[in-house]
Amino acid sequence: MKYAIFDLDNTILDFDSAEEASLTAVFRSHGVTDIIQAEQDYQTYNQSVWQQIEQGAERDSLLDQRFQVFLATLGINVDGPTVQQEYDQLLSHSYQIIPGTHELLTTLKNAGLTLLVGTNGIKDTQLSRLAGAHVTDYFDQIFISETIGYAKPSPHFFDAIFNEYPDMTTTNTAMIGDSLRSDIAGAVRADIPSVWYNPQHEANQTLIQPTYTVDNFNQLQRLLLNKKS
Question: How confident is the model at residue 94 (pLDDT cuts 50, 70, 90)?
Fold first, then answer.
């Protein structure tokens, strides 16, 4: 493999831990009483928001209003964009990383692979988290949906990457990520191999089929290096 395109959240960065800490702080500051239940309900709601974004809906307006809409269900009135900014600030300073990430990226880079980031999310937040986790320098370029104007799984997201690396092919490039719906489906649409990072051994209850599945970084490293071309 020559090119490895990495998703960030729950592939390299521990988004679940960062999100939980940020949500707890936001909910507490706005008077949510049952924070545990609120976080569970928010997750369900937020999944629907991102599904709309991944299907092409207008991203900024959905994100700016998500806390206003959700907190209104709890009888709490807030200004959506203001709370979204609070959340983004908290999240951008959350630098939790998946254990073993530095070792994996060092090995792959030393082996000559070109490492790229391909992530959905907010530019400033993702760049801040990468820098805080000290992994920015491993990557040749960082592609973020906010900057590109399209989110995975849109083929247009991957077009932006292919335009920068015209020698990418279906045999020398792989997309690595934890999300079947965005990472793996996007790779399928872009006609490149995909690696589903699935450390929790979740069942695939979709019709989306990854090219490969791994549940730890040792497996991922062997897969990428053994297929180096």
Answer: confident
In this structure, the number of other CB atoms found within 10 A of the CB of residue 23 comes to 21
- Please tell me the distance from the alpha carbon of residue 63 to that of residue 7, in angstroms, as a whole number: 20
- CA neighbor of 11 nearest in space, from 136, 142, 106, 100: 100
CB 4 within 8 A of CB 114: yes
Contact 122, 84 (CB under 8 A): no
CB 64 within 8 A of CB 45: no
CB-CB contact of 5 with 175 (8 Å): yes
Q: In this predicted model, what pLDDT tens digit does every residue of 199-222 receive, in sequence order?
A: 999 999 999 999 999 999 999 999
Q: Which helix (H) or strand (E) holds 195?
A: strand 194-197
pLDDT of residue 54: 83
Beta bridge partners of 116: 5, 141
What is the CB neighbour count within 10 angstroms for residue 10? 19
Is residue 96 within 8 Å of residue 113, measured between CB atoms?
Answer: no
Tokens 């490492």 -> residue: 115
Which residues belong to the active site?
A: 7, 9
Cα 159 from Cα 155, distance rounded (Å) = 6
- β-partners of residue 212 are 195
